[in-house]
Amino acid sequence: MSSELHIYNSHARAKEKFVPITKDHVGLYVCGPTVYSEPHIGNVRTFSSFDMIYRYLKFLGYKVRYVRNITDAGHLTNERGEGVNRMESQAKLESLEPMEIVQKYTVNFHTVMNLFNALPPTIEPTATGHIVEQIEMVEKLIENNFAYEVDGSVYFDVTAYNEKHPYGELSGRKIEDLVAGYRDLDGQDEKRNSIDFALWKKASPEHIMQWRSPWGMGFPGWHLECSVMSTKYLGQAFDIHGGGMDLKFPHHECEIAQNKGCYDKGGARYWMHTNMLNFNGQKMSKSFGNSILPMEFITGSHDLLDKAYAPSVIKLLFLQTHYSSELDINIKGLQDAEKAWKRLFEAKQIVETLAGTAKQKTATSDKISELATACSDSMNDDFNTAKVMANLFELSSIVNSMKGGQIALNDVQEQDIALLKKTFTDYLIDIFGLTEPKQAQNDKLDEVMDVVISLRKQARENKDWATSDKIRDELAEAGIQIKDGKDGDVSYSLN
Ligand code: AMP
Ligand code: ZN
Prior knowledge:
Elements: E1 6-9, E2 14-17, E3 25-30, H1 41-59, E4 63-68, H2 86-94, H3 98-115, H4 131-143, E5 147-150, E6 153-156, H5 158-164, H6 175-181, E7 197-202, E8 218-220, H7 224-234, E9 237-244, H8 248-263, E10 267-274, E11 277-279, E12 282-283, H9 294-299, H10 311-319, E13 327-329, H11 331-353, H12 363-380, H13 385-404, H14 414-431, H15 439-461, H16 465-477, E14 480-484, E15 490-494
Parallel strand pairs: 3-4, 3-9, 9-10, 11-13
Antiparallel strand pairs: 1-2, 5-6, 6-7, 7-8, 11-12, 14-15
Helix pairs in contact: 2-3, 4-7, 7-8, 10-11, 11-13, 11-14, 12-13, 12-14, 15-16
Bound molecules: adenosine monophosphate (AMP) and zinc ion.
């Protein structure tokens, strides 16, 4: 336990005390979305984790410059290493211009992040807005003999680089193993070595997104934009670089190589990687076809869901697991998270109505301050939100005991109540960015729906299908979907 912030640095493979380069300031760069389709709930987990981290750094009093890019240039590999420009293939599918795809999905991404109450980054640069700087970085790498041109394309020379700086320092991969085992299919006919990666690619005439460069018409490689935009806005050495675990190699490894090849400095001091959201034990991914969209959770429209879940419920479910652990979601977890959400906010509301009268510190005072300290110690211990949640639950039990009379209010000091109020507000609202349940309203609707659902059940038991269908159809018209569960349970969701 620690009262100073410690971060697990993937680069050092150890938890380290966080010391910013410039006192009281933090430079934070997070790899943003590739805007060729809607983000799935796995992407939302990663961006929500960094939102929590950003919020906590601000809460600690740091002035944070938070840069999160938009990948809109359409790089030439997909998750299987094949030469596909995702932006252009999606544009063909939707009969739109690539930049219409970019606009559509950037707007969509912002809408989703707003629904999840994530704060916007302080700078949100785009890859297409930084082509000039990307060309300059390629020129510098050629000048430093870490890159070579072949027929209008430029590749990073991993072998030449490895003679000066060890390649693989972040992922722990050895260059010999990589040469033997790793195949980057892109440019395989013209590269000096299979592990070399593209900095700039020559564009064929039918390619829509292309720019003029010293090597002819082309477009930048995947890893270049993040090296360029992080160092442009945060400096050649900055504090924290984050992204999902799956970006560690090759994306972040290549970023470090580009930065060192150019500036002799690797960019970030602390590398943070968030873990994957799985569904039914498999990483949620657009290319695996198992992705659930945020709106499908919010409306309950996905077949695998029993009902709608508020963004705060999903966020709370995320927060109950440490950001660096895998998280497998299921219905039971969502249902429990929903109960937990209501319980925590109920406790927050009850505290507002309580007044302590004790003149001296009591055992309850000690317990409350111990739990409040445990919350901040847990956050300082590599943002351990799972432990914070457990402590908040203990605090909510104390609040319930005060309300129920098991803890007498003359055993509670005014300061204890103030600390409870502050702790609930700090964590639930400011650091976790959760929103209050629309409690009263929902409870009333639940009561009404219980009556309607039981009337429909009666009609079905009487084989009065006309009435049962009428209830379902008229509710649907009013935007309320009735769902019949396998075990006879009936639930409802709002459109
Ligand atoms: P993309 O738009 O595909 O570039 O992904 C945006 C971010 O989401 C990256 O940081 C990815 O590492 C992250 N990501 C992708 N799939 C998942 C997943 N299943 N769970 C958590 N994060 C993910
Ligand atoms: Zn990146």
